[in-house]
Design brief:
The complex is a heterotrimer of chains A (159), B (279) and C (374).
Chain A lengths: L1 H9 L8 H8 L2 E6 L4 E3 L7 E7 L1 E8 L3 E9 L3 E2 L13 E4 L3 E7 H10 L1 H27 L13
Antiparallel strand pairs in A: 1-8, 2-7, 3-6, 3-8, 4-5, 4-7
Helix pairs in contact in A: 1-2, 3-4
Chain B lengths: L11 E10 L4 E8 L13 E6 L3 E6 L9 E7 L3 H7 L6 E8 L12 E7 L3 H13 L7 E7 L8 H10 L3 E6 L9 E2 L16 E6 L2 H14 L6 E4 L15 E2 L2 E2 L6 E3 H8 L5
Parallel strand pairs in B: 7-8, 7-11, 8-9, 9-10, 11-12
Antiparallel strand pairs in B: 1-2, 1-6, 2-5, 3-4, 3-6, 12-15, 13-14
Chain C lengths: L1 E4 H13 L3 E8 L2 E6 L10 E6 L2 E6 L16 H4 L3 E10 L2 E6 L7 E6 L1 H15 L6 H9 L1 E5 L25 E8 L2 E8 L2 H8 L4 E2 L2 H15 L11 H7 L5 H8 L5 H5 L6 E7 L5 E8 L9 E2 L2 E2 L4 H20 L9 H5 L6 H11 L9
Parallel strand pairs in C: 2-8, 8-9, 9-10
Antiparallel strand pairs in C: 1-11, 1-12, 2-3, 4-5, 6-7, 6-14, 10-11, 13-14, 15-16
Classes of the chains: A alpha+beta (159), B alpha/beta (279), C alpha+beta (374).
Chain lengths: 159, 279, 374
């Protein structure tokens, strides 16, 4: 839809894409809104969308068995959620809920996958951008994993 | 504090005026000089060696307002024997103080610039005096941005100060936690994540960073990617300290003594050894 | 320059004692030449010499009347200015707090007999550490100012010596109060004496002496030249700082780490190593506390402990720290090298690690030091 090209063009994730690519992508998308507290998707569900956040905040939650839901990340305007639609079995690895009223563009995953099969240049452009997202998320996960503000200091040895 | 150059290893007695539990493992001691010493003067970023009678002595960052000369605050986590003993003290008890030691945050270099403060965990404590001073002379600086990351929402320090800074003094305060439960409506994610889109002008900014070394490393990387030059990035380093005055040799970091050449360093001065393991 | 005969040399001890000095000098004990209180010249290691090699020290008795025919042993003079253990203060509980009492201790007045060129330089190096910064160390300062130094030019350097490379000997350079060169030729046994201070001049005045003749001065200079040619090893100190700074990740560090036991011997015997630790202790009642300072070593794990762990958990990192500090960082910190070329670390290392060999190995295929980039 022509009306989506403009917001997509402004979004940091899509910087540098050609007009024709943007048009192709926009063809797979629609505007969407979530109320504060609304669940966007659940862990395990089929991952059919790729969300481009325009306004608001989304919490990514993981369910531990006895721990309940733990929020592992929040995503803001200018960021994107989800690459589970890119990688088989195309199922969400976590849940997402809108923390505050959130506006986004939902891009149909199946539609996008089809377009990328036809136009491998488009596919490559998207993968380049996703590679950057993966690498950043990995860096951040490493830091979270290190538990750098660790509560229990290392035990002293006597040597 | 004491005439630190005459009798460098002798603590001066200070009375505990206040004890504030900040979080489950972090507390703030407010000390008042007793007897002959009546003024507590320090520069933001400096630390004191605090002595608990018979138990031992540790370096603790000063976390109070530099303009307050009647008392002085130290914020620390309970991490060992001495801090544990300190945690059991109460108002009226006496603690020994040596200092202040070390270099301070170079706020004079920030005039006319954006100031980006990146704090991780307890690292907010030695930055708080700098923030107090930046606010006290607010007109000297452009944007002041605080990016503060900690483990979980219950580990957030100085909640009252964060609120006041955000609402009354025109600071941009962004708080994030490494993980949270559903009740938290703020950011979740590492503090590094806040840097790429923080609203400062890299060509006219200085950055002050304090936190775990790995967090400082990634923060510096992110700030450099934004375009802040190395000489405008300042970090606060930490090493084992026994004397605080450059004689015991424990706090060496390459050729630098953290107690007298630091703890605050411009990053370009330590860049060659900062990324090397076990230096 | 003056000359003192061997017989008159004995009066040096009496003169120093009469001036209230505790005379400290070399003597043989436990198979080594160590430094301790001396009552007379007869207690010196007369006729002894030493053989030193990596990890090896042997004393050998010769048929000689030489008083100083050996080089340096495991002791250095640092233990007198920087005592291995020292109580800094005492305190006792008082109300909700405590009161500290400083020791009003009498400063010992030491007279050192037999300080070698490398050792004199080591004292200057420690002076730089403890006296020249914004803060001076009061214990070191009081003992240092009270001391009287009788230096001795080496005629017999040891097998591990490299003072020539480090420009600290064998001829002594100041500051000293008196510097002696022992000359033993046939039946002649005397000391050519150089005075280095007013205190030295005053002491010499009380000892039978005569002006040195040009021949005697020439002999003492010849002995210095001969000693300089007898160095056990060499170290290229020209660009060692840059070389080590650039090679912090050289594979040689892994190599030495496989050999190093992290036993701390080198730091104990080194005349410039100055690291100490502080211990706060109480008595059983908990009413009295003391703060003690004692020697420490960067080779211990605890040395680098901060909450959360150890900065240098591996032997590799600790050896690298010691050697780069000694030869490189020290220069940036204090304006001189930390190494004086005495060779003690090589002698007393149980596995015979040689700091000059390690420097050479890194210099051979490491990132080159020059041209120096700043």
């Amino acid at each position: 839809m022509k009306t989506l090209e403009a917001p997509l063009r402004e979004h940091p994730f899509f910087q540098g894409l050609s007009d024709s690519h943007l048009e192709t992508i926009a063809g797979c998308g629609r505007n969407i809104q979530f109320a504060a507290g609304e669940t966007i998707f659940q862990e395990g569900q089929e991952a059919d969308y790729f969300y481009v956040i325009r306004h608001g905040r989304v919490a990514l939650d993981v369910h531990g068995s006895h721990r309940g839901a733990v929020t592992i990340e929040t995503v803001e305007a200018g960021e994107i959620i989800g690459w589970s639609w890119l990688v088989p079995p195309y199922r969400w690895r976590f849940s997402a809920r809108a923390v505050v009223k959130t506006r986004a563009i939902a891009l149909d995953g199946r539609c996008l996958r089809g377009k990328c099969e036809q136009d491998s240049q488009l596919g490559y452009e998207l993968f380049k951008r996703f590679a950057h997202v993966f690498s950043e998320r990995l860096d951040h996960t490493i830091l979270q994993l290190l538990d750098i503000y660790c509560e229990t200091p290392v035990k002293r040895t006597s040597r | 504090m004491n005439n630190r150059f005459a009798e460098p290893m002798q603590p001066v007695p200070y009375r505990i005026q206040g004890f504030e539990r900040e979080t489950h493992d972090t507390f703030t001691l407010e000390l008042k000089a007793s007897d002959e010493v009546s003024r507590t003067v320090f520069a933001p970023g400096q630390f004191n060696m605090l002595y608990v009678f018979g138990t031992g002595e540790v370096p603790i960052s000063i976390s109070s307002h530099p303009a307050n000369i009647a008392s002085i605050k130290h914020t620390t986590r309970v991490v060992g024997t001495v801090t544990k003993a300190m945690h059991n003290l109460k108002a009226g008890d006496i603690i020994g103080v040596r200092g202040p030691f070390g270099t301070s945050w170079p706020l004079e270099l920030a005039r006319g610039k954006d100031v980006v403060v990146v704090a991780g965990g307890i690292g907010l404590a030695p930055l708080r005096p700098a923030l107090f001073e930046l606010i006290a002379y607010r007109e000297r600086y452009h944007r002041i941005i605080l990016l503060y990351g900690t483990r979980t929402p219950r580990d957030i320090l100085f909640k009252r100060d964060l609120k006041r800074w955000r609402s009354r003094f025109g600071l941009q305060v962004h708080v994030t936690v490494d993980r949270a439960t559903g009740a938290w409506r703020g950011n979740v994610g590492v503090v590094i994540k806040l840097i790429p889109r923080a609203p400062f002008d890299p060509s006219n900014a200085i950055a002050l960073i304090c936190g775990p070394e790995v967090m400082m490393r990634f923060s510096i990387e992110a700030l450099r990617q934004r375009g802040i030059p190395q000489e405008n990035i300042f970090v606060s380093m930490e090493r084992n300290m026994k004397c605080g005055v450059g004689f015991c040799g424990h706090c060496q970091f390459g050729p630098h003594f953290i107690c007298k050449d630091g703890p605050v360093f411009p990053y370009d001065r330590i860049e060659s050894i900062f990324r090397k393991a076990e230096v | 320059m003056q000359v003192i005969d061997r017989k008159s040399f004995d009066t040096l001890f009496d003169v120093l004692r009469a001036r209230g000095f505790e005379v400290i000098g070399p003597l043989v004990r436990d198979g080594a030449v160590v430094y301790d209180h001396l009552r007379s010249a007869s207690e010196l290691p007369i006729g002894w010499t030493d053989q030193q090699a990596p990890g090896t020290y042997r004393l050998i008795k010769q048929d000689s009347a030489a008083l100083f025919g050996y080089s340096v042993g495991p002791h250095s003079w640092k233990k007198f200015f920087l005592p291995p253990t020292h109580r800094l203060w005492r305190s006792k509980r008082s109300g909700q707090g405590f009161k500290i009492t400083t020791e009003d201790e009498k400063t010992p007045r030491y007279a050192f007999i037999g300080v070698r060129g490398c050792e004199l330089q080591a004292i200057s190096v420690q002076d730089q550490v403890f006296l020249r910064g914004p803060c001076t160390e009061p214990i070191y300062r009081s003992r240092r100012e009270a001391a009287f130094i009788v230096a001795v030019n080496c005629n017999t350097p040891g097998g591990n010596c490299f003072c020539v490379s480090m420009k600290t000997g064998p001829k002594v350079t100041g500051p000293f109060d008196l510097a002696l060169t022992e000359v033993l030729q046939g039946d002649d046994h005397y000391f050519v004496v150089e005075t280095g201070s007013e205190k030295g001049r005053a002491v010499i005045a009380d000892i039978p002496h005569r002006p040195a003749g040009s021949a005697e001065v020439a002999i003492s200079e010849k002995l210095a030249e001969q000693a300089a040619a007898k160095m056990g090893r060499t170290l290229d100190s020209a660009h060692i700082k840059e070389l080590l700074y650039r090679n912090l990740e050289h594979p040689r560090w892994d190599d030495v780490a496989r050999r190093c036991l992290s036993c701390t011997n080198c730091t104990l015997v080194c005349p410039t190593c100055f690291c100490t630790t502080v211990e706060d202790v109480t008595d059983l009642s908990g009413e009295h506390a003391e703060r003690w300072r004692r020697w420490d070593s960067c080779f211990t794990m605890d040395f680098s402990y901060i909450h959360g762990g150890y900065i240098r958990p591996t032997v590799k990192a600790r050896y690298r720290q010691w050697m780069t500090h000694k030869l490189a960082s020290w220069i940036d910190q204090f304006g001189t090298s930390g190494c004086v070329g005495c060779g003690r670390c090589i002698t007393w290392c149980p596995v015979g690690i040689d700091i000059t060999a390690e420097a050479k190995a890194i210099g051979a295929d490491g990132i080159p030091a020059s041209p120096v980039i700043e």
